[in-house]
Amino acid sequence: MTIPRLLVVDDDADMRSMMTQFLQKQGFIALPAATEHQIRHHLEAGRIDLILLDVMLGDENGVEICGRLRAKQEVPIILVSALSADHQRMAGYEVGADDYIAKPFNPELLLARVRAVLLRAQRTPSLSYRRRVSVFQFGGWVYDGKRDEVLSPEGFQVALSQRETALLKVLLANPHIPLTREEIAGALDVTGDTDQPEVTSRAIDVLVGRLRSKIEKNPKDPQMLRTERGTGYIFAVDVKVEDT
What we know:
CATH class of the largest domain: Alpha Beta
Largest sheet: 5 strands, parallel
CATH superfamily of the largest domain: Response regulator
Structural class: alpha/beta
Number of domains: 2
Distance between the termini: 18 Å
CATH topology of the largest domain: Rossmann fold
Strand content: 15-25%
Order of helices and strands: EHEHEEEHEHEHEEEEHEHHEEE
């Protein structure tokens, strides 16, 4: 249920904005960056699942940056460039790039390549740990994924609906990360029978209210599942994960 966090690196503000907005509409968390310094800031600040890295970044070289990142990071990297000759692509692959996309590109092609790289990155650990089920501890609460049970700090089992459990899993996978209603809806596949954004937003608000009523001491003054003004919601509590 984790929402992929993508870093879009391009020194062209228009291209950076276009790619970021497109990926956000597809249900990803897309963050913008323009320099190697900004890339490292994002990597230090939180989880990044994939980097879309432009090769020509003003005075900086994306291929060289990719090589330096790959020396210390395992995060998947897709190089994006107007330079598409075979030797230029090979230079990218030789420093550890996972894929190489030539500009100009069809946004749908970009989306397909992003999903493919994310799937490859997840394939090995998902196969290796397919029998493991996580136990999450948060604010004194426990969610046991194997038993699909939620236990209160007092040790009482609290019944959640299937959709409330799905929301909780999204939150547990993204602690301390502000999530928009659209991002949550995308992770839950809340599409309903309409494309109207306001309908989806109301559905998420109702679902959040129901979950709060079951896990918050005072649902009217929530301390864990808090409203993030101007964004949506944030799970403002540390989460400890154990594999069983």
